[in-house]
Amino acid sequence: MTPKISVDPDADAAPYEQLRTQISELARSGALPVGHRLPTVRGFAEELGLAANTVAKAYRALEADGVIETRGRNGTFVAAAGDAAERHAGAAARTYAEDAHRLGLSRERALELARDAIRAVYPD
User: Fold this and answer.
1) pTM recorded for the entire structure
2) Count of domains in the chain?
3) Residues 67 and 92 in one domain
4) Tens of pLDDT along 83-97?
5) Which residues span the domain enclosing 102?
6) d(CA 85, CA 28)
């Protein structure tokens, strides 16, 4: 059974993004354990009152993030999200560091800009 997931049509975030965020957080917390089978796109869309394309878009984003994996006709399952998320974030950080260096920013300025971006996303 999948833990309760809900989508608020009045929220600022798009429905697919709300779905992506909730599934990602549930996978990282362990509430959705590795190997847990997720509902089909159509079934989940009906359950949540969403268009199938909305759920499919969330699943595609989660698969790109390494949170879930699709095994063809066998279904969609929670992957080992922690490792994939850290690899993805590490690769993004490396790309940022390389870009900042190429642009001639000092190490201190690059770190300051990164901290500002993190503060904007992770408010206290």
Assistant:
1) 0.68
2) 2
3) no
4) 666 777 778 899 999
5) 83-121
6) 9
